[in-house]
């Protein structure tokens, strides 16, 4: 097997979803000619300038994240994309990439190779 390469991506003026898709593609290893779906053969990805990323459409105003703080009624919390993006832009991108990877045992290993600067 070949050595893993390091891809450095500058997120300045790149669209949020397209960038997440590109990162997931590299982490999975689909950019390699010897890709096999049942093996973890992706490369490292380092993303720079995440806070300068572009968000298309009305996502900033309309998108919301939901979570339950407990199992009880009324504990559903919502937080806007705008607030999360302002505080932790890398976490929004990490979550998008996480959902684009296959839901199996290899996903955690792939996500370990994603870094932010």
How does this model look, in words?
It is a single chain. This protein has a single domain, classed as Ribosomal Protein L13p, Chain: A. It contains 5 helices and 5 strands; from the N terminus they run βαβαββαααβ. The protein has helices spanning 16-28, 59-62, 81-87, 89-100, 106-111, and strands at residues 6-10, 44-48, 64-68, 76-80, 114-116. It has a 3-stranded parallel β-sheet with strand order 1-2-5, with helices on one face. A two-stranded antiparallel ribbon has the order 3-4. Strand 1 (6-10), helix 1 (16-28) and strand 2 form a beta-alpha-beta unit. The model has no long low-confidence stretch (mean pLDDT 94).
Descriptive labels:
117 residues, Ribosomal Protein L13p, Chain: A, three-stranded parallel beta sheet, two-stranded antiparallel sheet, 36% helix, 20% strand, globular
Give the topology.
Layout: E1 6-10, H1 16-28, E2 44-48, H2 59-62, E3 64-68, E4 76-80, H3 81-87, H4 89-100, H5 106-111, E5 114-116
Parallel strand pairs: 1-2, 2-5
Antiparallel strand pairs: 3-4
> CATH homologous superfamily, by name?
Ribosomal protein L13
CATH topology (fold) name: Ribosomal Protein L13p, Chain: A
Helical region count?
5
CATH top level class name = Alpha Beta
Strand order of the largest sheet: 1-2-5
Going by CATH, the architecture would be Alpha-Beta Complex
Count structural domains: 1
Shape: globular
Query: What average pLDDT do the residues reach?
Result: 94
Q: Kindly estimate the percentage of residues that lie in beta strands according to DSSP.
A: 15-25%
Distance between the termini: 28 Å
Evaluate the radius of gyration: 16 Å
Summarize the helix and strand pattern as letters. Answer: EHEHEEHHHE
For the secondary structure, the number of strands is: 5
Helix content: 25-40%
Structural class: alpha/beta
Task: Describe the oligomeric state of these chains in a short phrase.
Answer: single chain
The biggest beta sheet reads: 3 strands, parallel
């Amino acid at each position: 097997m070949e050595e893993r390469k390091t891809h450095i991506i500058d997120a300045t003026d790149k669209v949020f979803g397209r960038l997440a898709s590109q990162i997931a593609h590299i982490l999975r290893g689909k950019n390699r000619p010897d890709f096999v779906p049942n093996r973890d053969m992706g490369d490292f990805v380092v993303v720079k300038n995440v806070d300068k990323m572009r968000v298309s459409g009305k996502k900033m105003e309309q998108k919301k994240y939901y979570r339950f703080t407990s199992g009880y009624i009324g504990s559903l919390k919502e937080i806007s994309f705008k607030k999360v993006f302002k505080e932790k832009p890398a976490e929004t991108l990490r979550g998008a990439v996480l959902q684009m990877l296959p839901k199996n045992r290899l996903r955690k290993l792939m996500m370990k190779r994603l870094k932010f600067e």
